[in-house]
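Appendix B. Raw example, untouched.
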Amino acid sequence: MQLSSLVLAGVMLVRPPWPIAAQPAEYSKRLAPFVPSPQPIVEKMLDAARVKPGELVYDLGSGDGRVVITAAKHFKARSVGVEISPELVKSSQEWIKREGLEEQCKVIHGDLREVDLSDADVVILYLLTSTNELLRPKLEKTLKPGARVVAHDFEIREWNPSRVVQAEAHGRVHSIYVYEMPVRK
């Protein structure tokens, strides 16, 4: 008997409709599931990062584009989202256009491991701890001194946050870790 789903500790695990080896290439590059940050948490993350007008904010794994749009619209920052899903990129770009923010922000289709972050003032992450660990060497190598990295719920191991903000939204408490890149030695 072949099972296509399994209930384990109250969580249903569903097997994808294609064999794992035959997944579309886009899905094999995904480093985290798409789970949107609640809008109040988006605003708290940008507040915690102390985003200033004109700064450049990157959202790695930008999903539906809400962080990019909020950074541009409410913080007057320039912002770039990087997203692997073509469908999410398209819907984000449409939302940006509807908001009239094409000059301040954009979402690009790409792999967040390959984007150049050297000009970033702030990098926003809502990724798994394992993905944050994968990105840590790149962030250490490419981010300029004073750049801030904000991680929603999943810390960056081996880094010490300059502050941790706790905020409630949608019936649970979210942790926002803020890290500041040190001066290079």
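End of appendix B.
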